[in-house]
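Quick one:
INPUT:
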């Protein structure tokens, strides 16, 4: 299991003042209201985790680490229709990858189904829950609206005995789906709709990933959540703002049941990012409708997608730390996330040369039979990363974009008659442009100055550009996948019509890239800086015949520009 001690950054124990939730925890510890802090991360296993969940994970696990408490991983698996083992496995993998360890504290709401059932019977006996036979449509109409109170169900005043009998028969599987529900008897006129006799149990003849077909009824999220926290002695039940209106109900159940502890719920603002939709429902649709290649498609904001794209877990933790935890909803600029990614990769990624769109260069005064080894630095700021040998020869590839036949004024790279530096190698001058029948440039004839080996001229003359290159004979071929934002708008619609805002050009595949030979055999997932291009990660789709690289991120901010081009 992952144990990354750096997960909480350099924050010391009891780092109050970083956000209002940590302030509350600190105050509760200082006042002695609690002895140890217990938090939990409670995903529903109905999809993969996304970058928004990373915020919640870092917050809950981070607080536990910083204050010497513990954080549980609990699956809120109360809806078997949408939940799958694949999601459970993926969620565990992603939390570990992010650098957190739940130790032995892995739980499921389904662990508590028997206890929850017993509590439901207690409420029935106390006259605080009833079986309702209204149709879903009638229930909806009678619930009222924000401005109108609801109406009592005609079944609200059944006797406890009758309710108990019906509820037991619901459990026994005597009734079809939707025939009736069990509701809490609270207040149909409450200003808070969540308190208008909320559903506690529904009939569902469905296979559950953990309990199989044992149960014919399943608790609602609202009936399971707070009591699960209480069973686990969670002290601070941290969730996103949309549950603020559920807190009175959460507290009502805890007050009306003999629960073993009294957790408190605190709400914080969920993460929203520009150009990104963070809704599991939409992400599921993206996968199901094949807008992307899968949950781990590198364009997805899922943790699996970000990992495959080459985003380091450290960058996610750092990003979450920087955005902080607030009480008001806001949208974070995606460039801020990219900034954190670049910052980590700039430190950690080794440098190599790769030519994404190759243009052949022939050095006319370099002997045909000759080639030589030159020394290249693996990381400019980290001497410990060492150096490597790269092959130079008569035939090279440079980037098509680094040449212009008739350059505008500010173009200082290669063009006819102009001298540039080849990184780690020599100065070259372009002498002639070779074209095919269609008038396309297919080759540059150049000369090199042998006295400039290593990249400096003994006579002190300067060149205005340094470009990257690979040896045509020694380079390996690769496919490079360039990703652009999945959505073309900074504020994409997250509802049913999400597809209208998709960026039609979110993926460019460059199938004829040329890379330093050593890159063909690096580890999957390893991130490298291709000099002057960005950060790239070796993808699992690679084969012995052809390496595949994902561009994790370019060297500079790209969001607005990228989409404009797309
Ligand atoms: P949906 O995306 O459909 O709203 P969900 O992400 O809320 O579903 P859960 O599995 O219930 O699904 O989420 C687990 C936890 O992660 C919850 O405590 C939830 O509050 C938190 N969470 C979910 N989305 C975000 C987000 N964007 N930012 C911060 N926390 C989030
Ligand atoms: Mg949720």
């Amino acid at each position: 299991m992952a144990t990354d001690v750096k997960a909480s950054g350099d924050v010391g124990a009891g780092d109050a003042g970083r956000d209002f939730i940590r302030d509350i925890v600190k105050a509760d510890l200082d006042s002695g209201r609690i002895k140890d802090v217990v938090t939990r991360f409670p995903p529903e296993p109905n999809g993969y985790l996304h970058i928004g969940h990373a915020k919640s994970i870092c917050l809950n696990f981070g607080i536990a680490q910083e204050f010497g408490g513990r954080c549980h991983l609990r699956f809120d698996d109360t809806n078997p229709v949408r939940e799958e083992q694949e999601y459970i496995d993926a969620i565990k993998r992603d939390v570990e990858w992010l650098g957190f360890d739940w130790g032995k504290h892995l739980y499921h709401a389904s662990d508590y189904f028997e206890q929850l059932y017993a509590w439901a019977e207690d409420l029935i006996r106390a006259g605080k829950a009833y079986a309702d036979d209204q149709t879903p449509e009638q229930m909806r109409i009678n619930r009222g609206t924000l401005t109108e109170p609801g109406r009592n169900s005609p079944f609200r005043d059944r006797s406890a005995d009758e309710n108990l009998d019906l509820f037991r028969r619901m459990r026994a599987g005597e009734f079809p789906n939707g025939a009736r529900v069990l509701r809490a008897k609270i207040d149909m006129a409450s200003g808070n709709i969540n308190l208008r006799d909320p559903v506690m149990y529904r009939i569902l003849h469905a296979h559950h990933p953990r309990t199989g077909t044992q149960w014919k009824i399943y608790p609602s999220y609202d009936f399971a959540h707070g009591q699960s926290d209480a069973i686990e002695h969670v002290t601070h039940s941290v969730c996103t703002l949309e549950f603020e209106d559920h807190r009175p109900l959460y507290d009502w159940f805890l007050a009306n049941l003999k629960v073993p502890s009294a957790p408190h719920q605190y709400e914080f603002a969920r993460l929203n990012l520009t150009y990104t939709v963070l809704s599991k429902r939409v992400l599921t649709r993206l996968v199901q409708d094949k807008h992307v290649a899968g949950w781990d498609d590198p364009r997805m904001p899922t943790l699996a997608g970000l990992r495959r794209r080459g985003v380091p877990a450290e960058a996610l933790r750092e990003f979450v730390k920087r955005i902080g935890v607030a009480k008001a909803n806001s949208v974070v600029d995606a460039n801020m996330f990219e900034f954190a990614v670049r910052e980590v990769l700039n430190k950690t990624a080794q440098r190599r040369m790769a030519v994404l769109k190759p243009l052949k260069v022939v050095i006319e005064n370099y002997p045909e039979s000759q080639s030589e080894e030159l020394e290249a630095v693996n990381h400019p700021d980290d001497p410990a990363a060492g150096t490597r040998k790269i092959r130079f020869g008569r035939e090279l590839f440079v980037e098509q974009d680094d040449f212009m036949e008739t350059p505008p004024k500010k173009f200082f790279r290669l063009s006819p008659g102009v001298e540039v530096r080849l990184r780690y190698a020599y100065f070259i001058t372009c002498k002639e442009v070779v074209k095919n029948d269609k008038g396309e440039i297919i080759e540059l004839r150049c000369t090199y100055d042998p006295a400039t080996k290593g990249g400096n001229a003994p006579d002190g003359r300067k060149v205005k550009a340094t470009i990257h290159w690979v040896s045509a004979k020694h380079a390996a071929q690769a496919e490079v996948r360039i990703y652009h934002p999945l959505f073309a708008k900074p504020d994409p619609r997250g509802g049913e019509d999400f597809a209208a805002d998709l960026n039609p050009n979110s993926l460019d595949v460059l199938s004829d890239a040329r890379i330093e030979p050593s890159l063909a055999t690096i580890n999957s997932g390893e991130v490298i800086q291709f000099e002057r291009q960005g950060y790239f990660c070796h993808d699992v789709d690679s084969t012995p015949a052809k390496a595949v690289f994902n561009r994790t991120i370019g060297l500079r901010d790209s969001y607005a520009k990228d989409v404009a081009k797309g």
